[in-house]
Specification:
The complex is a heterodimer.
Chain A: E1 3-6, E2 11-14, E3 19-21, E4 23-26, E5 31-38, E6 44-50, E7 56-59, E8 62-65, E9 75-77, E10 86-94, E11 100-102, E12 106-111
Chain B: E1 4-7, E2 10-13, E3 19-25, E4 31-38, E5 42-51, E6 54-57, E7 65-66, E8 76-78, E9 87-97, E10 100-105, E11 109-113
Classes of the chains: A mainly beta, B mainly beta.
């Protein structure tokens, strides 16, 4: 079945470090891909998305590129801040489908 | 302000005592979902609704019921809660943009069943 796999956390970085959180997917068709962020005590918020191969989603300094050849959608940020500490979820959704599949989440800690 | 609200935010109950978690959205979205979040498992979809009076099972529907009598409301009902339903629950509503659906999530309801 369709699935999303992301790297296990927690990931601990110092402020201004480079961030990569890996995400790969399996799908029977061509899904849209998403990154959601969950801050402590809150619900998930959409961070960025890409709807087709080679699309790059970006927001708040975060980027991810839809790589069909490697079935990946890795999240990157060039310089993290303490305020980026949160749990990050990779997700996929088939076009026209009603189901969103989430990865297990990766917790990020950023130290000052 | 566009939002999804859930009530209660925290609930401790006992096995077998029926409960309802309410969910309401003010964005006129047609599509709504319920998820549960458990450590190491991410979010798993319980039920979803494509519109009023149209609902369907997600991945983990056992032990749950839903209804969609109005567009804005999508309550989650646990007729006879059990300890394995202790979890963090999220309601979400969706709209279509760029040929896909973006979801707005509520703040979550933390349920403990003893």
């Amino acid at each position: 079945g369709d699935s999303v796999t992301q790297m296990e956390g927690p990931v601990t970085l110092s402020e201004e470090a480079f961030l990569t959180i890996n995400c790969t997917y399996t799908a029977t068709g061509y899904p849209s891909l998403f990154w959601y962020v969950q801050y402590p005590g809150e619900g998930l918020q959409l961070l960025l998305k890409a709807t087709k191969a080679d699309d790059k989603g970006s927001n708040k300094g975060f980027e991810a590129t839809y790589r069909k050849e490697t079935t990946s959608f890795h999240l990157e940020k060039g310089s993290v801040q303490v305020s980026d500490s949160a749990v990050y979820f990779c997700a996929s959704r088939l076009s026209g489908g009603f189901k969103t599949i989430f990865g297990a989440g990766t917790r990020l800690f950023v130290k000052a | 302000e566009a939002q999804v609200t859930q009530n209660p935010r925290y609930l401790i109950t006992v096995t077998g005592k029926k409960l309802t978690v309410t969910c309401s959205q003010n964005m006129n979205h047609e599509y709504m979902s319920w998820y549960r979040q458990d450590p190491g498992l991410g979010l798993r979809q319980i039920y979803y609704s494509m519109n009023v009076e149209v609902t369907d099972k997600g991945d983990v529907p056992e032990g749950y019921k839903v209804s969609r009598k109005e567009k804005r409301n999508f309550p989650l009902i646990l007729e006879s809660p059990s300890p394995n339903q202790t979890s963090l629950y999220f309601c979400a509503s969706s709209f279509k943009r760029d040929n896909t659906y973006e979801q707005y999530f509520g703040p979550g309801t933390r349920l403990t069943v003893t």
